[in-house]
Amino acid sequence: MSEPTVSFPSESTTSTARTVLADALRKADPVGARAVEHETAWRRQYLSHFRRAVEAGIGEASSAHRIAADGLASAYGHFTYGDAPLGEAIGTQPLTQAFHTVEVRGEAEPETELTLPYRGERLSGDALGAQLDDWVARGVITTSAADRVRLVQQHPEWLRLDGETVVVLGAGAEMGPMHALLRWGADVVALDLPREDVQERIRQTASSLAGRVRLPARIVGGAGSDAGADLLTELPAIAEWLDGIDGALVLGNYCYADGGTHVRLSMAADALGTHLVERRPDTALAFLATPTDVFAVPRGEVVAADAAYRAGGAMSRLSRRTVRTLAGGRLLTRNYPPAADPGICDALVPQQGPNYAFAKRLQRWRATAARHDGVRVSLNVAPSTRTRSVVKNKALAAAYAGAHRFGVEVFDPATSNTLMAALLVHDLKAGAPAEAEPWMDEAAGACHGGLWTAAYHPRSALGLAAILGVGALRG
Questions:
Q1: pTM flag (> 0.85)
Q2: CB–CB of 152/159 below 8 Å?
Q3: Domain chopping of the chain, boundaries
Q4: Are 168 and 188 in contact (CB under 8 A)?
Q5: What pLDDT digit, counting tens, does each position of 220-230 carry?
Q6: For domain 99-297+340-474, is the CATH number 3.90.1480.10?
Q7: What is the C-alpha separation between 33 and 264, in angstroms, rounded?
Q8: CA distances (Å), 131 to each of 116, 189, 245, 388, 447, in order?
């Protein structure tokens, strides 16, 4: 008998994504829902439908809330854990594992000042402030993101996150906050796969830094490491173990996997978060949004992009016109209509595929729905980052290497994860103020790397960025 796991209803991830997206749009945008249902080339055309699911939620907060709630409800109507609907798995399905807790305490002293690794230096104080100013001036991060980081600078006592325990799903992920939180002396629960290499890396990190890490240790033996847990196959056991962790929890989803497994992990994490919020209403939820998605962006970003377009950016007006003519108008198109308010930054990347878009949209829907229900939520747009999972794709690696030619800064993982950890601290300690509409919540505090303020529609410059980046990679 095979072990239970979080599963799609069939082998077709395409069918599930189409159905869920159509259900999400059905009441808020019936025409959009029909367009999704009638789409016959999903893997080529999914980008326009995910864009429409953002556009349909602009203008009335109730529409965005409905899209999020209906999309999540549809997803739970399709995914299963073993023989049970996913939403009923925790508390009803037999446990396939049991965990006790192993604790690792760091030997270092906690850092008492916010510092940020950047291009071989560690910035603090005025130097960090100057870098934030530079990023804002170049349109790399939003003013609100810089202001939030500065507030954390002014309150270094927040860094320890006293009174909070951060449960890091995907603790070994390059974009996760575990390393930064432990430098600051925070209390972390680290969940990742029961693999020797992964668990050894987590232990070494924990012992070399300043915080406390608690790990699930497996009571029922098996292959692999005694520590660690598989979110897909051991979901009820993980929930039971976390139920025994004292104090206020922050559940952060930093999981990543290729293809449909990423969607399954997003749904497993969502089921775990839903369970914890129901059992412990003081639970907070944390997510990182990818910049390579569709976002509504404020008027200020549109104005900056329009100014960059008029200035010509990486190309003179003559060369831009030539390129566009030769490409039949597909290259170097404007990022936004000049009068857009808000603008729609459509930075979905076809190379990342529809499952990636689906997994990240599920997380955004949960953030929207949870905020609406009064749950503490931290969701911040992170910059494009040279993680191993991204640069293993040669086309994306080349595009990242050439992105600076178009006003986009690609960050190193150490810079990104520390910057985003600082924003997490802000959201938990200062609280992210509620905005009038969900798209405004997503735009506040965004570190988009320059995609929102770039002169050109991201996909219309992607190919040229890759061509320009090939030489840099070879060099």
A1: yes
A2: yes
A3: 99-297+340-474
A4: yes
A5: 766 566 899 99
A6: no
A7: 23
A8: 10, 32, 39, 25, 13
